[in-house]
Amino acid sequence: MIVGAGASGAAAALVLAEAGLRVVCLEQGGWLDQRAAPSLGPHWEAALQTAFHPNPNIRRLPSDYPVAEDDTPIRPALYTGVGGSTLRWGAHFPRMRPADFRARTLDGVAEDWPLSYAELEPFYDQVDTITGVAGLHGDPANPPRCAPRLPPLPLGPGPARLAAAFDRLGWHWWPSDAAVLTAPQDGREACNNCGPCGVGCPRHARASADIAWWPRALVAGAELRTGARVLRVEPGRVVYHRDGERRTQPARAVVMAASGLGTPRLLLASGLGGWATGRHLMHHPTAIVTGLFEDRLDGHKGPFACALYSQEFIKDDAARDFRRGYQLQALRGGGPVQTALGGYMARVPWGRTHHASFEATFGHSVSLTVTAEDLPDPENRVTLDERIADSDGLPAPRLHYRLDGNARAMLDHGIARASEALREAGACRVVVNPLAAAAGFHFLGTARMGTDKRASVVDAACRLHDAPEIVVVDGGVFVTSGAVNPTPTIQALALRAVTLLAARLRGES
Known about the structure:
Blueprint: E1 2-3, H1 7-18, E2 24-27, H2 44-48, H3 56-59, H4 103-107, H5 117-131, H6 157-169, E3 174-175, H7 209-212, H8 214-219, E4 223-226, E5 229-234, E6 237-242, E7 245-250, E8 254-256, H9 259-269, E9 286-292, E10 308-310, E11 326-331, H10 336-341, H11 354-361, E12 365-372, E13 381-389, E14 395-400, H12 405-424, E15 429-433, E16 463-464, E17 467-472, H13 487-508
Parallel strand pairs: 1-2, 1-8, 2-4, 8-17
Antiparallel strand pairs: 3-10, 5-6, 6-7, 9-12, 9-15, 10-11, 11-12, 13-14, 16-17
Helix pairs in contact: 1-13, 5-13
């Protein structure tokens, strides 16, 4: 039994079904027809503020659940449905670095993972092959990639200027690995750089889990039940609500893939996991630094988050006033409505100067995000809020999060370096968002793995310490966050965990 049909649930379903096991996956949302995505029409930016808004408290689809967000500066960003949050993602597809699994040993902070990059590497390769990754081999900042790569996405004028600026500054940069096809594959078309990725991809070029993983899992024999809201998880069974009825599904094993927010919510509601459940919440605190250029850069064309990145400042440096590091990542410019309403910069003023200001702004910007590593803190956590519930009466998750001094110093350092790079690239004006409030798209650490049963929730095989029949495979199991997007690592961990689970279940047959 799998709970959740997003990136990790889809990966788990494929492996378990191909192992010959009976697989049932419960997903509270439904299928999204991306062939009919709003990106084909003129109202795609309106869709980003309504049915495709990242915050479920604003979106309020029937399949959503509320999230109490009054005790955090970073708002929740997630999506329910087959494919989960990959339905809205930017498809940036980096791996964590070997050093990210050894923060305590190398830098004296946080904790080491109970596994290494080398143990995950074959699963990373499997993820890349199934997903279809565009990129360029040979990045000197990272280990070699064995899986094949399609040609990288074009940089575009804005990121190309940044690349030249990084070269002049002597800083590392590399074209992004992207879960976006640049050549046809498996019946999917190549990206045409149309731009509105956050509202679905009609060409199926962007590898959301519903497109890249679920068709294979269904062919392999997995069963997917949509509109099924899980209410309680127990060893040996799952209680859920579907079609107006409360149902119980027996299960030899339960795989939790409901995200680093949804999984601790269900574990807490079920009395599972122990003291550490929901604790050690990590985001990737993000600042956005935007440069405005005199020349038109057409930044609205192409996937918005998959141009290039720099890991010049990702390693720990004792000379700095913070520990660990951050990544700089290029963002292309927004659409016309986002530009008029401010987007990454100040709102274009209304009145006589509006049209002239808009013309000088739209298509003239490129941004750098400062993606900071978040160190684990047990007081940053997910709890249950009994005052707020979903439509089935299950208490809402409440986020408790504080940006610590280390992360703030890291962001400030990154803002200074990003501003330097943008000015070197020729920006005539630089605008800073010191903390992106809407960037709560990574929920990590809330069911973390470890050998200490009090300080962690699962073991190295991702099994609950207090209920080994339950396996967690989403971002909750992270021990540290690294400074890169987590989806490839989440899926690699899921493949490893369910490969071990399949071996155990077959051994019991």
